[in-house]
Amino acid sequence: MQFTKLEFKSGAVMAIPMVLAAAPFGALFGALAVKNGMSVFESFLTSAVIFAGASQMVGIELFGANVAPWLIVLSIFAVNFRHILYSAVTGRYMTHMTFAERYTAFFFLVDPLYAMMEEKHDSGRQISFAWMMGAGVSFWVVWQIATLIGAIFGNLIGNPEAVGIDFLLPIYFLSIVMGFRKRNNWAVIVITSGAAAIIAYHYIGTPWHVTIGALAGIFVAAIIGLPKDAKLVAE
Amino acid sequence: MSTTIWIILAGALATYLTRIGGHVVLSRFEKIHPRVDAGLRAVPAAVLTAIVAPYAAFFGVAETLTLAIVAVLALFLPALPVFALGWACILGLRYLIG
C-alpha cells in the first residue's frame, strides 16, 4: 500500500488518547532517571532508543541500585518479553509490507499500538505502514518531549520522599499488574510470584527477588497450562 | 563511551529483539508447546509482581496500605486516575502515619 498522508493522520488521531495517557509516565521516567544518576541526555537517549515505558522504569530502578550492567539489560529484556507475543501476532497483519517497512514498524510496537492494531484488525481493515507510523511516531515524539520535561524538572526536586516520588514506581507497576487480571492464571501467577519475591527479598536480597519471583510465577503457569480456547493475549 | 551509554544501547537492542522476535522465531513454528505458551504469557505479570511485592511487605504501614488501595482502585478505574490517587494516598498516609 502507498504511504499516504491520510493513513498517517488516521493512525496519529486514533493514538491521541493513549499518547496523552502515556505522557505523564514519560515525564516520571525522566525525573526518576535523573534522580537515579543519569544525565538529561542519557535519560533522553534511553527513551529514544529503548522506547518501552515499564522496562525503562525497571532499568532505572536497578541502575540507581548499582546493579551489574548485564543484569539491568537482562531485566529490560525480561520485562519486554511480552512484545514477542505481540510481534508473533501482528507480523501476520503486516505481510503486505516490505521487509524494511515491517522491521521499521516493529520498533514502534508499544503496548497501546499493539492494542490499536488488534482493534483495527478486528474491524476487518488492512493495517498500513503509514497508519502504524502515524500512531507509532506520535507515541515516540510525545514520549521524548515528556522525558525531557521530566528530566529537567526532576533536577529541581530536592527530596523525593517528601513529595512521594520514590513510591510512584510500585504504584505504577501494581496498576499494570492489575490491568492483566483477566488473563489466564493471573491470580495464581501473582500470588506465586509475590510470595516467592518476598521470601527471596528477605533471605537472598535485591535484585534477585525479581528473577526468582518471576521464574516461580512462570514455572507455575507452565505447570497449570492454558485452556484450549485461550486467546494469544487476553483483554 | 561510558558504561551507562552501553547499558542503554544494549537495552535498546534487547527491546528491539523482543519486538521482532515473535515474528522472526515463533511464526516459523506451526505450533508452540502449550506449556511454553503458558509460561511466556505469564512473564509480564510475574516480573512486575516480583518487583512490587517487597514494597508491599517491607517498607512500612503507609506503603502497604497505599498498594492495597491501589489494587482495589485498579478494579474500577483506568491507569491514570489510579496512579494519581495512589500518589495522593502515599502522600496523605505518610503525613498521617509518619
What does this protein structure show overall?
The complex is a heterodimer of chains A (235) and B (98). Chain A is 70% helix and 0% strand. Chain A folds into 2 domains: 150 residues, no CATH class; 56 residues, no CATH class. The mean pLDDT of chain A is 88. By secondary structure, chain B is mainly alpha-helical. Chain B has a domain of 54 residues. Chain B is built from 4 helices and no strands. Chain B starts with a helix and ends with a helix. The interface between A and B is large, with 96 and 67 residues. Chain B: It holds the Pfam family AzlD. Chain B: InterPro entries: Brnchd-chn_aa_trnsp_AzlD. Chain B: It comes from Ahrensia marina.
Secondary-structure topology with pairs:
The complex is a heterodimer of chains A (235) and B (98).
Chain A: H1 5-35, H2 40-49, H3 53-64, H4 69-79, H5 82-90, H6 99-105, H7 111-122, H8 129-154, H9 168-179, H10 186-203, H11 208-224
Helix pairs in contact in A: 1-2, 1-3, 1-8, 2-8, 3-4, 10-11
Chain B: H1 3-24, H2 34-58, H3 61-73, H4 79-97
Helix pairs in contact in B: 2-3, 3-4
Protein name (chain B): Branched-chain amino acid transport
Transmembrane segments (chain B): 6-26, 38-61, 67-97
Pfam families (chain B): AzlD
